[in-house]
Amino acid sequence: MCGQGQRTRSVRCVSTHGATCSVECGTGVQRRSVVCLASRADSPSEQSCGGARPAELRACSGGACQPSTRWYTGPWSEGGIGV
After folding, report:
1. Count of structural domains, the chain
2. Is 75 among the domain residues?
């Protein structure tokens, strides 16, 4: 399929692999571009590449999420006590 840079007549299927997962931990998404290319100047149609269009998205894992607890402090109020 497209991942191997398959050639069919003058049409070639090309995909670029996204290396990073969309999250640092838990389940995320990897994205890649999938393009049908031709050696001629006119744009090929999706049917010219033949076969099913390869996936542009796939699930990925950023590893286990470590629970974290920390204090959050908001801004100080502007008024005095009892105002």
Report:
1. 1
2. no
Q: Would you place residue 10 in the very low, low, confident or very high pLDDT band (cuts 50, 70, 90)?
A: low
69: in domain: no
Range(s) of the domain holding residue 45: 2-61
pLDDT digits (tens, 9 = 90+) for 14-31: 656 556 899 989 999 999
Residue 45: inside a domain: yes
Each as own residue / partner, the long-range contacts of residues 8-13 (CB below 8 Å, 24 or more positions apart, any chain) are 8/48, 8/49, 8/50, 10/38, 10/39, 10/40, 11/36, 11/37, 11/38, 11/39, 11/44, 11/48, 11/49, 11/50, 12/37, 12/38, 12/39, 13/37, 13/49, 13/54
